[in-house]
Specification:
With 287 residues, the protein is α/β, with parallel strands linked by helices. It contains eleven helices and ten strands. It has helices spanning 6-15, 27-40, 50-55, 59-72, 88-97, 111-127, 155-162, 189-199, 214-222, 232-247, 259-281; strands at residues 19-23, 44-49, 79-86, 101-104, 131-136, 141-143, 146-148, 168-171, 204-206, 225-230. The strands form two sheets. It has an eight-stranded parallel barrel, surrounded by ten helices. A two-stranded antiparallel sheet has the order 6-7. Helix 6 links the parallel strand 4 and strand 5. Helix 2 (27-40) crosses helix 11, helix 4 (59-72) runs parallel beside helix 5 and helix 7 (155-162) runs parallel beside helix 8 (189-199). The chain is globular, with a radius of gyration of 19 Å. The chain starts with 5 loop residues before the first helix and ends in a 6-residue tail after the last helix. The protein binds 1,3-dihydroxyacetonephosphate (13P). The site of 1,3-dihydroxyacetonephosphate has 15 residues, from strand 3, strand 10 and helix 10.
């Protein structure tokens, strides 16, 4: 069932588990995530970045593909189709395209402008039945070969954004996208506790789910994190399985690679990664 992410995340916060957001890039990834969620009876969030949306020819294509695929595969678990790190314009496009959830990443605007734009988008998203995620404190990551460590969110700014009626909040707590550097000091649980104290029952979102040690994931969930985003780990396992298939020289027929066979090991690798994360996040059987 394609639904907004609000109810599933409120339930997760209450039940002290987290729902995984897995980013999708093509048909194979989408199919792997949906089939695994159904098999494990877990709610799930399909994340679509602006870049991935463009790659798949636009958000309308993504929305149509996901809806049709869910029908053809008889997916019964709750699924949210969510814009990841959306720009202001991107949010409008996804609302129009039939997404059920959006993230407005206004973290790079001055806080007043972030508040203004978030307020406007909350109103429109809620009128259309979508959930909305906002971000305070930018999440670091690699840019031009330099790994930025990410800002820590200011709890007062988190409260100001939370009070706008958003459904869940991504607060920077030293987490970053992509692989963590050797000298990464770990998640700032002190910041997480202060954010939680400021925003109360609002479900919190942990970006940069790849490479965070299991004990930190569990502690973050115990402190109010109800949604965890994973992208890089699926990319890595997909690439490794595809490389292995090619290096094994499986195109012996001389007819070239059959794309369905070529992408199958990568798709299976994503299923395994998604399964492992759902088990770690505790969302299995919660659909
Ligand atoms: P990773 O790529 O580090 O898993 O982070 C994904 C993410 O946070 C998407 O918003």
């Amino acid at each position: 069932m394609l639904v907004s992410a609000k109810e599933m995340l409120d339930k997760a916060r209450e039940g002290k588990y987290a729902v995984g957001q897995f980013n999708i890039n093509n048909l194979e990834w989408t199919k792997s995530v949906l089939l695994t969620a159904e098999e494990l009876k877990s709610p799930v969030i399909l994340g679509v970045s602006e870049g991935a949306g463009k790659y798949m020819t636009g958000f309308k294509t993504v929305s149509a593909m996901v809806k049709a695929m869910m029908e053809e595969l008889n997916i019964t678990v709750p699924v949210a189709l969510h814009l990841d790190h959306g720009s202001y314009e991107g949010c409008y496009k996804c609302i129009k395209a039939g997404f059920t959830s959006i993230m407005f990443d206004g973290s790079h605007y001055p806080i007043e402008e972030n508040i203004e734009k978030t307020k406007e988008l909350v109103k429109i998203a809620h009128n259309m039945g979508l959930s909305l995620e906002a971000e305070v404190g930018s999440i670091g990551g690699e840019e031009d070969g330099v790994v930025g460590l990410g800002e820590c969110a200011d709890p007062n700014e988190c409260k100001a954004i939370a009070d706008l009626g958003i459904d869940f909040l991504a607060a920077g707590i030293g987490n970053i996208h992509g692989k963590y550097p050797e000298n990464w000091p770990g998640l700032r649980f002190d910041v997480l506790e202060n954010v939680k104290a400021a925003v109360g029952d609002m479900p919190l979102v942990l970006h940069g789910g790849t490479g965070i040690p299991e004990d930190m994931i569990k502690k973050a969930i115990s402190l109010g994190v109800a949604k965890i985003n994973v992208n890089t780990e699926c990319q890595l396992t997909f690439a490794a399985a595809t490389r292995e298939y090619i290096e094994a020289g499986k195109d012996k027929s001389g007819k070239g690679f059959d794309p369905r066979k070529l992408l199958a090991p990568g798709a299976d690798a994503i299923k395994a990664t998604v399964k492992e994360k759902m088990e770690l996040f505790g969302s299995v059987g919660k659909a």
